[in-house]
Structures are given as structure tokens and as C-alpha cells.
Amino acid sequence: MLKENMYKLYQMPNVVMGTQLNLRRNLINHRFRKSACTSELNDIKEKVLNAALELDVFKGGTVFSMENCDFDAIEMFLEKGFIDEEFKESGFGVILVSRNRKITLVINGEDHISLFINGQDDDIFESWETLSDIDDELEKRLGFSFGPKYGYHCSKISNAGTGFTVTYFLHIPMLTAEAEDEDLDFFCEQYKLSIENSIRDSSGISDYSKIENEQKIGISEDEIIVRMETAAVQISERERFLREKVIQKKSIVVEDGIKRACAVLKNAKLITFHETERHLSFLRLGIEAGIVKGLSLKKADSIFSRSTPAYIQNRIFAADPIEEDKFRAEQIQKQLPENIKYEEM
């Protein structure tokens, strides 16, 4: 089942944009961050960092301390969902990034330890094995808080049990259309998952959304992976079906949206993030339909990630929204290939 699902997912890069695995742990006989005193937080930081640096995967890695971390790096970690605003303001937080840049360890975040692996074309099961090996080695050196009833203890009861979260980042413009909301409700209920906007500080759901497993107690990590793989395949297949249906019945609407997107992104003097999100969503549809030429999905996704409010604010520190929109438009036009064009449907 898993191999079959993986094969199907690799055929749907226009729907599944990437994955993220997250594992949370807390040291035995230590309080959670919000209850711990200064000396205890420093003790946790020192113990975890020293233990992690003994592992081959983190040797030669990069350490970011919140005491002296630069603004650009902090915003990048916030954008990826590795840390929260409270961690940003804390002087006790440390982030360790592996030398291959694929694995991130957050110390003294919401939990004492939070491990992340982000991927695109990676085998999610191999990523889990890597994460599990690191978890085993750290547990040998540190000892984690664990109980027979709730499994691994976490600061939020919703994360207890395995402490394991699987996230899929999706481009689902047809499913997020108002008329198809019931489909998403069905998937959430059937697979016990949540769906929300994948953009930090954005509410509701959008063309760019993410799904995560809600259940972590009473289920193994392997079962979580299989369930989420199956859900991602089902959602992707439904999205593809709806796209084909819309393109067949409302081709002129889709074509108009794609051509408008090309024109606006290439020529706008000011553009908001909401506009950018919508126009890039149409461009992705155009790439899939073979209408948009000279632009790859990978490049479109890169433009998207460099257009978010956090990324723009990080670059210009402008108090005026007009300046942000002006800078965003300029950056998009620098990144768009000169030979991008569209054809008739």
C-alpha cells in the first residue's frame, strides 16, 4: 500500500508541494519551558546541544542561538514553522541545523526537543527512519519523559503519545473553492487530520494549504505515515479530477485566469501577497495544462516562497504597505523567466 501510494504521489507534484516530519520530546525530570526557571532552561539547552553534537548527522552543523541570532535567520525559521514568536523572544532557545541542511533540531521550543525533516521528492519512510535513529541516540544520552498511558509527554496533550506529526503541503485550488468544502470536511473526518492555510499568520484555508495528523495517541508512527500518505493520495486524486472537470466545462474561465496571471505578474507596479498567491495558483494550473511555457513548478514555488509577507518584511523593513507591494512586484519580475509565455487552450 505504501509503495503504491508513494508512486502515485510522485505523479502529482502539481498537488503535493512538499512534506514535513516533526518529532517532539521532553527530558525526564525537567519541567516544560513555560514552567522552568532560568537555570533549568540553561541546563536543558546545554545537555541537549552537547548530546546532539556527538551525533554524526550534526557534526559540522550550524548552531543558531536566540541570544545573538540575526533577524534573517529567525524569520526563516518562523516561516518554516520551526519556532513561534515566544521562542523568538527567548534567550534560552537554540537551533541546530545538520550539515546537509535537511534536519533541524529546536531546543527549548514549545517542547525541550523538536526535530524536523522537510522534503519534496524524498521517500517519507526513509525520512522517518532517519528521524527515528536520531531520536534513539538522543534518548540513550538524555532520557525522555514517557508514561504507559500517554506515551511521550509533551507540553500540549494533543502532541502526546508518539509526539509525531506528518505534514503535507498542498496546492488545492479546486478543493478549496466554496462549493467543494464538503469534500475537505469528509477527508478530515475520515483520516483524522486537520487542514489549514500553509502561510504563517494567515487564517482559514487557501489554494496553498497543509494537512496534518491530529491523532498521535493509540497509533504507531508507521500507521500515521500510511494514513497520511493515503489521505494525500485521495485528496490529490480528487483535486486532479476537479481540475479536469473545470478545465473541460469552464475552459475560458481557466484560460482567462492564467493569461491575467501572466500579465499581472509580468507588469504590475504594486502587488499584494493575496494577489500574488492567486495569480501563482493560476500559473501552476497553466503549467499542468501545458498552457504556460518557460516556467517550471519548482520555479513557481520559489517565487511564491519569496513573496510571503515575512520574506518581504525581512528584506526591506518597510512600515508602508505600498513599499512592500512595490518591492514584491519588482522581485517577482526579476525571478520570472524572460521567455515565459502562454498558448491557447
Task: Tell me what you see in this structure.
This protein has 345 residues and is of the alpha+beta class. It has 2 domains: 12-240, 2-Layer Sandwich (Creatine Kinase, Chain A, domain 2); 252-339. The chain is 48% helix and 17% strand. The protein is built from 12 helices and 12 strands. The strands form 3 sheets. It has an 8-stranded antiparallel sheet, with helices on one face. A hairpin with a 5-residue loop joins strand 3 and strand 4. Helix 8 (251-267) crosses helix 9. The chain is globular, with a radius of gyration of 21 Å. The two termini are 36 Å apart. The relative contact order is 0.12. Mean pLDDT is 86; it is low at 5-10. Belongs to the ATP:guanido phosphotransferase family. One of its GO terms (molecular function) is ATP binding. Its EC number is 2.7.3.-. Keywords: ATP-binding, Kinase, Nucleotide-binding, Transferase. ATP binds at residues 18-22, 165-169, 193-198.
User: Tally of extended strands?
Assistant: 12
Low-confidence stretches: 5-10
The CATH class of the largest domain is Alpha Beta
Strand order of the largest sheet: 2-3-4-5-1-8-10-9
SSE-based structural type: alpha+beta
Number of helices: 12
Binding site for ATP: 18-22, 165-169, 193-198
Pfam families: ATP-gua_Ptrans
InterPro entries: ATP-guanido_PTrfase, ATP-guanido_PTrfase_cat, Gln_synth/guanido_kin_cat_dom
GO biological process, one term: phosphocreatine biosynthetic process
